[in-house]
Amino acid sequence: xxxxxxxxxxxxxxxxxLLNAKLxxxxxxxxxxxxxxxxxxxxxxxxxxxxxxPHLNYADRTAFDIALAEEIDRHAPDLIxxxxxxxxxxxxxxxxxxxKMINIHPSLLPAYTGINTHARALQDGVKIHGCSxxxxxxxxxxxxxxxxxxxxxxYNDTADTLAERVLHEEHRILPQAxxxxxxxxxxxxxTGKIVTNRLEQPGAPLFSPGLG
Length: 212
Ligand code: GRF
What we know:
Layout: E1 2-8, H1 13-20, E2 25-32, H2 38-45, E3 49-52, H3 61-74, E4 79-83, H4 91-96, E5 101-105, H5 117-124, E6 128-135, E7 145-152, H6 159-182, E8 186-188, E9 194-196
Parallel strand pairs: 1-2, 1-4, 2-3, 4-5
Antiparallel strand pairs: 5-6, 6-7, 8-9
Helix pairs in contact: 1-6
5-O-phosphono-beta-D-ribofuranosylamine binds next to helix 1, strand 5 and helix 6.
């Protein structure tokens, strides 16, 4: 079975979903830059190795990334999954794991990279928002997209209600992306493009507000 390492900084709801999903791979370690990340407790409660690499202990990003890479490599993962890992990573770190590291981001990329995605989407008045799973490349939230889910933005949405609707879909697309990669149905080629041997291209348009 392929081995996964999860990187997170907070709540860990995506981790929880992955632990409950029947994935064709094993989560071998959960690593956080924050000792108070709730996700670490979830890992511990499921008997999964949890490790803290506190970013404040390191002089700069490069030093932190070296320590993080050492910890990751100890577990020899096939895939590294970032679920709310709130650190900007150096290009050297990202390139070391090229094609082996994915991230879940709460927007329909390339729109709304970075933070506060739901509030910014509401501010702009977009009618469709969502989430993306993508391979990680040195530019923040700009790597090749594996899968996206779109949700309607409702007239009375707040950032919290919109975040909740998006999170529900994050919990569906992240396990799917991991399954595809672990089954070698989706991968990144040498030119940095997504390759897939899945032929299905289903899907229906989403109208928001609805037609009629
Ligand atoms: C998710 O919204 C994810 O898209 C973002 O951080 C959040 C992590 O949530 N990058 P959780 O810690 O998995 O609950």
